[in-house]
């Protein structure tokens, strides 16, 4: 997998030639996941606000509610949960598509035409993932904040005015906190892309092999995301 | 236009010497040696699982041998130089068309990916090649809408776009009805005469092999049982070759009838 990622990096000069496929993939990722991201993010923000709001307000820390929602969402929840969602939604589809091409000799056909499968299949997918996931995470952060703010406003046990929520949030959450989450999601995107494409390219056997590759792509991506998240958090906390 | 070498429309010679290949403990190819002359139709026959497709994959560079050598026009093919210098194409058993692309995009894939022609030229070449295989006007169809025979002919059109000097066919008539099989066989012979391409056909279809081949090699159990013209192969003294060539349902039933 590391070798595949390295070869993909080495094929970056071919990006301009593959630009149409990169845009198609970005559109595909956005189209397939925007609604899910929206729903998931809204309720993540809402539930954090609901869980922490009453406790903090009871202790006179109403101004901290927005901070808790803001930091938790942008530094941890949005990048990790959105990456897991994308691994399940897009990574699995990538592994299945490339796996089926491998099983049905379409990749061999590309090779006989002197078309490098890394340029043709892997590069556009990893690039699109690396571009689309950070954007989705940025969108997710905003929607989650909105969800948190709405719950904080309408729930009588929290009762923080909508504009006060965002004023507190702006005071506590710095721009670098958002960048922190976006950077994490960029790394996760590379992991999902590389793992999924690698699983697809190494598919053996028939439909059962494709199923195995899809499962491994999703499970391996999630495990790596969680481990790398810990390491990145340690690194970025310094 | 494509960077065509001077010997663009002439087939190449291929030489295989002592080719061996194993997968784990399974010895698939055992010391295979033969030569294919420029412009001839060379059929590799043999029962299922005898190593024919593996051999074909070695010829086009999809597999590396454990031992042995393949030479194209006298140059070692494994060095990579010969593979990039000469043009070889393969028609896969399943057609191996990219299912996410239309027929036109499949046929023009080589040209569009290598950016050798303008989009208008690619459209013209694609239409021309589809006409050659009798599928004029199918550019916008998806591979899933085609019959098995049509898919194989699209795969041939895709191979023709490369203007190959060596064209490899993997089981071109498998899964086809007799009429489609004859059409594909005629196509192979017609192309061979028209562009003088060296054609290597892997098949277990006796009618196809004996009907179109200039020479035949019969592979049994990973090694060559017989090689020569169809007539020479028919008269092979090897009992395994004779059994393969003469296998007949009625004869077999008659032999097993209780007296």
Task: Write up what this structure looks like.
The complex is a heterodimer of chains A (238) and B (259). With 238 residues, chain A is an all-alpha fold. Chain A has one domain. Helices cover 86% and strands 0% of the residues of chain A. In chain A, helix 1 crosses helix 5, helix 3 runs parallel beside helix 7 and helix 5 packs across helix 7. Chain B is an alpha/beta fold. Chain B folds into two domains: 161 residues, Rossmann fold, CATH 3.40.50; 67 residues, no CATH class. Chain B is built from eleven helices and ten strands. In chain B, the strands form two sheets. Chain B has a six-stranded mixed beta sheet, sandwiched between helices. Chain B has a four-stranded antiparallel beta sheet with strand order 2-1-4-5. In chain B, strand 1 and strand 2 form a beta hairpin. In chain B, helix 5 packs across helix 6.
Give the SSE map.
The complex is a heterodimer of chains A (238) and B (259).
Chain A: H1 2-10, H2 19-58, H3 63-103, H4 106-112, H5 117-154, H6 162-172, H7 175-201, H8 207-237
Helix pairs in contact in A: 1-5, 2-3, 2-5, 3-5, 3-6, 3-7, 3-8, 5-7, 7-8
Chain B: E1 14-23, E2 26-36, E3 41-45, H1 52-59, E4 67-72, E5 75-76, H2 81-85, E6 88-91, H3 103-107, H4 109-114, H5 119-132, H6 148-161, E7 166-170, H7 178-195, E8 198-203, H8 206-212, E9 215-220, E10 223-228, H9 230-234, H10 239-246, H11 249-256
Parallel strand pairs in B: 3-8, 3-9, 6-7, 7-8
Antiparallel strand pairs in B: 1-2, 1-4, 4-5, 9-10
Coarse morphology of chain A: elongated
User: If you consult CATH, what is the topology of the largest domain in chain B?
Assistant: Rossmann fold
Summing up helix and strand content along with how strands pair, one would put the structural category of chain B as alpha/beta
CATH homolog superfamily of the largest domain in chain B:
P-loop containing nucleotide triphosphate hydrolases
